[in-house]
Amino acid sequence: MLTRDSRLPPGPRWTPLGQLLPLRRDMIGFLAEMKRQYGDYVFFNIGHLKCCLIGEPEGVRTVLVTNQKNFVKGRPLELARELLGEGLLTAEGEHHLRHRRMIQPLLYRSRLPGYADAMVESAAAVDRRWQDGQTRDIMVDMSDLALVISGKTMFGADVSGEVREISTSLTAAMRLFTRVTVPFSEYLIRLPLPSSVRFYRARARLDATIYRLIRERQKLGTDGGDLLSLLLGFSGDRQERLPDPEIRDEALIFLLAAFDTTALSLTWTWYLLSQHPEVEARLHQELDTVLGGRLPTWADMGQLVYTQKVVKEVLRLYPPGYLLARRAQNAFEVGGYSLPKGTLTLMSPFLMQRDPRWFQEPERFDPDRWATHDPHHEPRYTYYPFGGGPRLCIGDGFAWAEVTLVLATLAQRWQPRLVPGHPVELWPLLNLRPRHGMRMTLHARHPARVQAA
User: CA end-to-end span of the chain, whole Å?
Assistant: First the structure.
């Protein structure tokens, strides 16, 4: 319990609804304004829920690393269990640790070269479909591409024929997270509301795909070196077989990671390049020099220096995981303040990575900042697009490689340009999406097609 002389952080006054309405109107804008008004620690309520926004690196480290055993996943991921079950993203304690240890070998850096060919081949297929002068929703194309890559690398399956249905179902299911700030939303979803009906239909469609993939791999009965082989106990590294519902949960999380993390990173990359032709020109120069018109390979990663700076800068400005939430199981201290049991701590990579204390001209898209940026001269959690601590995203290396190789494949040939007047508005669901998609017109760079190496 808090003692009488305990001290809460500053914040707006307590009311029955608290900050529910401004948070629902503009979540990121509201959090940015709270930080501007009150500083690095802000205490406020959403109905009965006590919240603390943490805006400085040491406080983030306290929650994610130093005192991480006191915290469990917060409200957004509690709600996510309705879709994702008890997989890596949502599980806690021993269940999470056991699954993470099982799956981690698939994503070791030594395994990434084996995935590179599938990433590049899938991107090359998109290149062949695109046509000069076409107007397309780049977010849709990148989502479909990421799902195809995930199907090949994690499931050993070609899902290209049903990728639109999967993508549509994931989009419908993700709308559940518009309710994340609504008190008792975990109970409202049980009511037969139209939005709830749409969610459960979408979840059923996704389940049908996942269980079909499981059955097909069971029939093969061989180790394909992928996620399903591992979870079904076919891998030579591990003979333990998970129950089908647990396999379903992990498989769906990997589909979601492709759809709503890698795809969004690529979408924001195309947007930023279209708004900064000088950066795009530098990128093209490197790609032309290193690749000379051929498709990239894993061996090229070390030479794609500027390309990777572009990716790093995109993840600074538009981290898909824009907000991390952890709920305190016991009272705790952070930043000189004392906070009660049950407090929902909120940490925003989006806000931290745009803080002028850590990044000069933070709103400017400048990949060259990473040539001189020295992380050893500042706190660890000024840049954390994939989270941190024991719950660091297990697929961060995979995502980094995929974004880099897809970008290198397509940017050689194409210069997408935002359709004039197309609105670009942040839509914070589970990850940071553009609310209206990303309508862009394709412009070919060279008449000759990129040839395979």
Answer: 65
Residue 426: name the closest of 318, 324, 323 by CA.
318
Burial of 95 per CB tally in 10 Å (0-12, 13-18, 19+): middle
Contact 46, 61 (CB under 8 A): no
Per the CB < 8 A criterion, the answer to whether 60 and 352 are in contact is: yes
Q: Are 247 and 232 in contact (CB under 8 A)?
A: yes
Residue with structure tokens 């780049």? Answer: 138
Cβ within 8 Å of residue 48, ≥6 positions away:
183
Read off the tokens for 150.
């995930």
Q: Are 56 and 176 in contact (CB under 8 A)?
A: no
Structure tokens at 120: 């590049």
- Per residue in 298-337, pLDDT (tens digit) is 999 999 999 999 999 999 999 999 999 999 999 999 999 9
- Residue 434 sits at φ, ψ, to 5 deg, of -80, 125
**pTM value?**
0.90
DSSP track, 226-242: SHHHHHTT-STT-----
pLDDT per position as a tens digit, 186-235: 666 777 778 788 888 888 998 999 899 888 888 887 777 888 888 888 76
The span from the CA of 209 to the CA of 196, in Å, is 20
